Every structure is written in C-alpha cells, then in structure tokens.
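Lab notebook, bench 4. The sequencing result for the construct came back, and we need a structural model before the next group meeting so we can plan mutations. Quick request posted to the team channel:

Model the 3D structure of this chain.
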Amino acid sequence: MSVKAEQEFSTAMFGSQTVWLCPDFPAVEAADNHAVLYEIPGNGATWPYKPTVGDDKWDSDHVKMPCSDHNLYNIGDEAANVGKKWDLIVEALSKPMRNSQGILEAVLTYQPGFKGIWTFTALHTFFNEYWDVSESKKFFEETLPEVRKLALALPELIQSPIPMLKREQNKSVSFTQLQLASLLANAFFCTFPERNNKTRKSEYKTYPPANFNLLYDGGGSKVMEKLKCICHYFTRVCKEQPKGVVTFSRRHIPVVECPDWSNSSLSISKVPFFVDAETFIEDAQGCIQVDFASKYIGVGVLHRGAVQEEIRFVSNPELIVSMLFTEVMGPTETVMIKGSERFSTHSGYDMTFKWAGDYRDETPRDPSNRRRCAILVMDARWFPQPYEQYSKRMFDRELNKAYVGFSFYSSKEGINYPGVATGNWGCGASGGHARLKSLLQLMACVEASRPMCYYTFGDNELKGDILKVYSSLLDHNVTVGDLYKYLLEFCESEALIADFYGYLEEIMSKR
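Done. Here's the predicted structure in token form:
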C-alpha cells in the first residue's frame, strides 16, 4: 500500500491520518453498571494501583473466590467442623513443585473430589516430553515459584467482589493487569470453587470453564502449543509486572430495539469499506477487532480448539479471565474487551497452530491506562446444514448480533470511529458462507455508522468477488433495506447457493 493509500485508509477508518488520534472509548469510571476493582488514581497518575475494598460476596451475582471466607471444607466426619479452603490452598502452593506431578498433587489436596479423575496427562506430556528440557527445567526453577506467589497474592490484589456479567445486562468490570495475572495464576492451579460441575442443575452450567484442568487433561499438539503460550505469559509477567488496565463490557439490546432491516433507507455507501487479503485482524491496529467467538466466551481455549478465538485468547491470555464471569451470550448480546496486551506471536491455524515466540506489544495506552486495543467478542450462529443460513430468521439473527457489537459506544450522528476489522465470521467449522457474511456485516456497519475493513486471510478470489459486488451496490445506489429484500428474494429463488453473488448482480441490473 502506498503512503497516499495508507493515509486515505487511516482517514477513512480512524477519522485522522494517524491511527492513534481517533476518539477514545469512554474512560474508566466507577458506576452502578461499572465495577472498578482498583482505586482510580488522581492527577493523571497510573501506578501503583490500590485495590478497592468491598464486602466478601458468596452468591450467584459475583465470582465465588477461592480466598473467600465462605469457601469452606469439612474437617473429618463432622459436618459442623469446617475449615477455610484458602488455608489448604496456601499450604499446598507454599510447598516446592519440581515437576508436573507436583502440580497435580498440590491441586488434589484442595480439590480432593477429583482424585482419579484429573490426571493432567497433557501437562505431564508437555513438561516431560514435548517442551525443550532446558525450558521445562527453567520454568519449574524460576517461573513457577513466582506464579505460586502471584496466585497467593489474590487476597491482597482483589479486595472487592467481581460481578458476573449476566445475560440481558449492560455492565462493565475493570481490572489492573496485575489483578488479572493473579486470577490467571489461580486458574493455572485450579483453585476456583464450584466451577467444575457442568450438570444440568449446576450453578455454573451457563458459564464457560474457569480452571485449567480441562486443558491439562487434553491432548494433541494444539494443546501443547497453547501451554507454551500460557507458560510464556507467566514468564513475562513474573519478570516484569504489567502496569495497565483492562475493561470487560457486556452489551444487550432487545430485539425490538434492533434496526428494521427491511425498511432501512441508509445507503450502503454511507461508510467507508475496504477488503484486505494480506493483513490479520489482530494486526489491524486501532480498529475494533472482531473475535469470532463461541456463545460461551473462550470455551474452546481449554479444549482442543485452535482457530481464531482460541489463538487470540492464548496470544492475549488476559482475555481468558472473561471466562470466569461472563455468562453465555444471547442472540442480541456481545462483549467488548478494551486494553488487553498481546504476549505471543504464532504461526499456522488449527492443526498447524504453533507458538512462534515473544511479542512486544507497543500499542499506546488511553487516558485510563488501557492499551488502545478493543476486541469485540461476537458469536455467529452454527449451521450444520449450510443452506439453513439463507432464511429471514437467520439473516435477522446475524444482522442483529453484528449490529449490537458494531454499535458499541456509537452515536446516531456522523461516522463513528474507529472502524471495524472483521472477516470470515462464523465460516469454516460453523458452516457460514463468507460471501454472505461479508454483506451482512457491511449492512450492520452501515446501521452502526462505522467504517469496515474485511480481511480474507489470503483469499484473493474472495477479495475480488466482494469488491466486485460492493462496486455494483454503489453503482445502483442500493440501501440496506434494498439489499435485505434482495437477500430474501434469493431465498425464494431456485438459484444455487454458489451463484449467490451472480444472482445479486442480476437483480441489481434489472432495477
């Protein structure tokens, strides 16, 4: 891209020729719908942070913490004789751990119900066979003792309750990066109570897993490479404490308040639109970067998944903490995570995924000391039969979901910056068709008044097809409502799905 083209792109996507001059998202501010787990410094100071102090909560509206006074266990056979589980955890994690078997034995002292169930086979394989011997030795001698300290610092670092981001709520929670590191260290040691029961009647059946035991009992090279990413993260944060802030925000819009797609008079030309076959979404600096999520945020991270969401979460491990408090997303809900730091780079995808080394994140920070990185967690519908996505009900579902995400912090006036960086959302294993999803997301961006850049991940044919049909949409002055009706007409036609773009071209030429 030429210098002139880069300047035009920046101006169109960010409202300025410099990426970092685009408007900031709202600053961190404590409110009824925004829990801030640290004291916001005055006079522009950012470090060190003090934790906010609040009451210990042990209910369904807050994270049940391993260090809570309510986290109890029975001593002996008498139900009335109980002790604090945190005392057990402190005792177990205070002892030296020289290998992965030592980690397992420590965990089972405070999670005794899983003896014979949790074997940590993948963790043993990783440290004993897969990882370089010298790296494994260094981790146990230098890094792991610091991870244990980080986990045990939880009561000092977090002193107010963490709210659950529940369904049909608009709520945010902000942490320091050091607080997130402590929470991740506790997930590493599987200390979170009552999070491993996934039966139909369990309290956390609508939440993703929180402890790392699922990853440790997984298998295959993808799990091994994810463990590399996680171990690298801990090596970094234990050597140099991170000093920033991360905000997790959940947004819900009732269906009745979503756009009337069939009657929208907004022109497709309203917002700038670009297609790029070379860049990856995570490298789209300054943009709102779409995470092709599961409705259970990050659920594949601790399983065997290694596609877009899972790779992003292990590259930016602070994202994993969202799994602790984010309930399953409904059809008109999304989550935005602002400020996370990237620690690893990678190569490959799915079966070829590999950790590729250290990543030094130079993304500037906003006035709230968050990295200017906004990741939009947005789940697409799964289509076991691809033709199912060509229906009014499915169009509406995907359009509404995308609109809820793209209109985060938006205004009805003018163009909203920054723009959206997205791509083949819900395609691949989820059965979505990229040629359809590109148009649905464009329609949502028009309604949200946000510029959009679509990344095709090296598919130049797809890039050409999208640009061609987009050019036709502009030539024929097509509105969002017009395109919506064209999609419905296609559903009622006898045309083949493979001829989708050709059918649209034919419809437009006749109008």
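Residues 396 and 495 are 21 Å apart (CA to CA).
Will bring this to the meeting.
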